[in-house]
Amino acid sequence: MLVNIVKGLAASSLCPVRSCLLQSTRNTFVLKRRFPPNLYKKNQKPGKLRGRHYVYDLVEDTTITKKPNLEVVLTTFVEGVGSKGDVVSLKPNIAYNKLLLPGLAVYKTPESVAKYATVKDEKEKEVHSSAYAQRTVNKLESLILAVVMNKDHPWKIEPWHIKASLRKAGYYVPEHAIALPETPITGPDLLKQNKEFYCTITINNLEKARVRCRIHHWSTEPSDRLPYVFEHWKLDSEPLFGNNSTPAQPEDNLKNVEK
Hints:
The chain has helices spanning 2-14, 92-100, 110-115, 120-124, 133-141, 159-169, and strands at 29-33, 56-61, 70-74, 87-90, 105-107, 144-150, 155-156, 178-179, 186-187, 196-203, 207-218. By secondary structure, the protein is α+β, with helices and mostly antiparallel strands.
């Protein structure tokens, strides 16, 4: 009797009970017989299947099939996607994780389209001119713009100087959309080297981006050039004006900003 009890305890210790989660997955595999069996007549006993009849070719695997896009209706403005009431088509995982779960969108139905349609008055009060305008503002405000000026001849910074510097950085901005500080910036003045000031760029008559600009003197004579500073944009910089005066308003607004 004691021997049986010891054997039972040993067996239980060797095979511990483990919790196992059994959950079905939505997998579908479409197969096709490589060697189909012969047909048989009515009321005739089917022939015996051979080994070759169990050889299959894979026709379709639904786990790797590309899922169609999911259409959703936005319930609020989403940067880079659209405004309230817009119907957008996105990949299922993006639409579900980024929009549906946070409550930024609902599934597209006739009822939801009518419910979240943006009326004209709301569009006039919209704080974003387009889905990508705020993204453009963020890109411009994260930029440290190098404004290269002549070291040998007198100059005064004009909007076209900022336009040329932005063009070198990969942005096209019209001059009438650029607002400089009210205090004129003149030179050459080595005391202003690598000092920072702000200019304002207006996008689509609505958004405004404050761009950080740094002055760098340059000479056409190699012997008169200042020594190059590696990754100068990562260094700390002093403001050109004590209070970093707010730039004046541009005469017109930026119609289009292209990177």
